[in-house]
Amino acid sequence: MRRLPVVLAVLFALVAGAALWRLWASSGPGEGTVRTIVLITPDTLRRDRVGIYGRNAVTRGPLTPRMDALAAEGLCFDDARTPVPLTLPGHTTMLAGLPPAATGVRLNAHGRLPDRETRGYPLLAEHLRAAGWQTGAFVSAAPLLALHGLDQGFVTYDDEGLDDTPPGPAYRERAGEDTVDRALAWIQELGEDDRVFLWVHLFEPHAPYAPELPRTTPLEVRYDADVAHVDRIVGRLLDGLEARGRGDAAVLLVSDHGEALEELGELTHGYLLGDAVLRVPFLLRAPGLEPGVRTDPVDLADVAPTLAGLASLPWPAPSGDTPGRGLDLLAGPTPEDRVRVAESLFGHQRYGWAQLAGAVGRDGMLVDAGGDRILWLERAPFLEPQAGPRPATGRPEAAALARTLRSYRAGERKDLLCGGVGVGGYGSGARVAPFLDPQENARLPSPYDAIPRVAAIDRLAKALRNGADPQAVERQLKKMEAANPANPELAWWRGRAWERRARVSEPASAHAAQAYLDAWRLGRRDANTLIRVVGVDALGREAEALAQLRSLAPEVPPDCRLALLEAMLLRALDRHAEADAACARAENLCRRPWERAALDRARAGETCR
Predict the structure, then answer these.
(1) Nearest Cα to 524, choosing from 560, 494, 497?
(2) DSSP H or E run through 407
(3) Average pLDDT of span 307-331
(4) Residue range 437-493, pLDDT digits in tens
């Protein structure tokens, strides 16, 4: 990555100096002056791609003129972070004002967030709705489907067309222009005097980037094209608000997480903790708010308290001293010694790697990867890639950061953990594992060491989907398993390879079932895997398959497809009353469009009558 020319570097340093960067002062939004609050969340937007943060000065010109203009009209927060590099938990933190361990939403493979009474903390939309605000959400990708529970408090929650149909390699998304047009049509129907909270989620620039460009286009060029695209969509929304008489809206633009783009060896996000995925743009414009730049430590958990403050509503403080809890940013600068937390459980959920938990200090981040693996990540230099982790031995901040991490882990809401819904590109829909015992965690591979295997698995999976010889793929997978025998994803794809071979060789079905069972035993306990464990080799051995299904099914949350598979096996065994009961369960479980389609096929085939 190119360095800034000396003149530009000096200029930036001067602008960034405390003497010229205007921190929050006494001026701010007046009581009752804000009637429209808009939260814009471009998914996977790296901080360094937004012009105000400096990247555009050294590349192909400004990628984000509309975001830059928004920053010039309000506050730009220079040191904002997400506590988790995944879409659903990141947005939950924004709307709850709490970090993932306290919300219970740790992965995209989450079930449904319980109601307020059960979870014990409010969501921003609930808080505003109770005060008489009109609340609307318009989301652009399946991780934020209403079925996950973030719809609570919204009068309108538009996720139309975002069904998370398996077994595709990526989540279903909706074009940002369509999402914005729906949001603006909703605004148009409201009364002029209505107080409005609008949340607009845009999936650009999440992968796959800029599909209109040739596949040979360099990764960063495709990503930057998508950043420029989402900037135009942001402009479309801001212009539309102006045209509908809401140009005075308070607008907060913030990303749920960034994108690695091969920093620390990670291609996208979710597996590692590092600046590329944790530092995010955070821009706030509001009536009466003095423009400037803030350098104090900011977190996604600050979104809910800050927007509630703009609505002149006090945000209920959580009980106890919860690490990572949100603060109202307009009540004054946050403490300079504020410690922010971070976590990544995705590598453990999908590949059986160690879980990661981090605490961010002034100069870098302490990362607990289990046991004695206490690592240190120096803060990345300006516009430079971050160096890999080193042992934290001798770091003066380490003891205080470790204490914060212990407190964060101790406050984990295990009672709210669930799973069983997430599918698509993020894999497992299994139950979410809580924090492991440190010594147990230490026995698992460090994600920082294991991350190159993700690319290797992805290449083989892509080759298999594109028609490669399944026998050759299976041989390569077995070689990789020899070096990494505890990886459930390798066993799962070995099952897929055998399943492809089963189309021409009947004995291959038994090999496929065994491979899927290996994946299950290694921890890939989700409905997708169980269906294959049982169903791929069930023909002619229905009684054995039924017993296996009933033995393993209690380990995963109830699932529409499992009920239909049980009905199919029972019908084949002429146990019609039990099959009818299984179909009745499926009627209650099959709610999403693709599930209803599966139920319709079962009816057409007389599995369900």
Answers:
(1) 494
(2) helix 398-410
(3) 91
(4) 999 999 999 999 999 888 888 888 888 888 888 889 888 888 888 888 888 888 888
Q: Among residues 272, 306, 330, which one ends one of the domains?
A: 330
Distance of CA 116 to CAs 96, 113, 121, 124, 320, Å?
Answer: 11, 9, 6, 11, 18
Other beta carbons less than 10 A from residue 320's beta carbon: 10
Structure tokens given for 539: 């023909």
Chain-centre distance for alpha carbon 5: 36
Query: Domain residues for 89?
Result: 6-330
Contact 364, 378 (CB under 8 A): yes
Q: What is the C-alpha to C-alpha distance for residues 483 and 396, in angstroms, rounded to an integer?
A: 37
Give a yes or no: residue 247 inside a domain: yes
Last residue of a domain, one of 281, 296, 330: 330
Q: How many structural domains does the chain have?
A: 2
β-partners of residue 158 are: 138
DSSP codes joined into one string, 215-279: TTS-HHHHHHHHHHHHHHHHHHHHHHHHHTT-TT-EEEEE-S----TTGGG-SSSSS---HHHHB
CA distance 93 to 99: 5
For the record, the structure tokens of 67 come out as: 């975001």
CA distances from 575 to 286, 567, 568, 587 (A): 65, 9, 10, 19
